[in-house]
Amino acid sequence: MLDVINVTHCSTLKTDNKLMNVSTSNVICTLNPTKNNCLIDGGGPLLIQLCPNRWVLIGTASSWQDCGQENVPGIYTKVSDYRQWIDAKTGPEEDC
């Protein structure tokens, strides 16, 4: 389970004695107390459950620092910024 954190807070967290460079509005920042994203996770899904049998993709893993470390944020690209294009290619989503 991941916690979504404010991008402003995310950009202040230090990793490897460097500040994370997160300044765009098209990202979702997460924090997992046990470990963060690694290179192999690139493009991996960030999902939320809308109803009992329905999961929705809200982000894709896009950045990582200090692979597999505790309390280091993971950065995901917001899928909502590409929603219009996705719907045009796949059709609109169904209701629960």
TrEMBL record:
Protein name: Transmembrane protease serine 11B
Listed InterPro entries: Peptidase_S1_PA, Peptidase_S1_PA_chymotrypsin, Ser/Thr_Proteases_Immune/Dev, Trypsin_dom
Keywords: Disulfide bond, Hydrolase, Membrane, Protease, Transmembrane
GO MF entries: serine-type endopeptidase activity
Domain Peptidase S1: 1-91
Alphabetical list of Pfam families matching this protein: Trypsin
Any Gene Ontology biological process: proteolysis
Family: Belongs to the peptidase S1 family. CLIP subfamily.
PANTHER family registered for this protein in UniProt: TRYPTASE-RELATED
Family annotation (PROSITE patterns): TRYPSIN_DOM (PS50240)
Domain of life of the source: Eukaryota
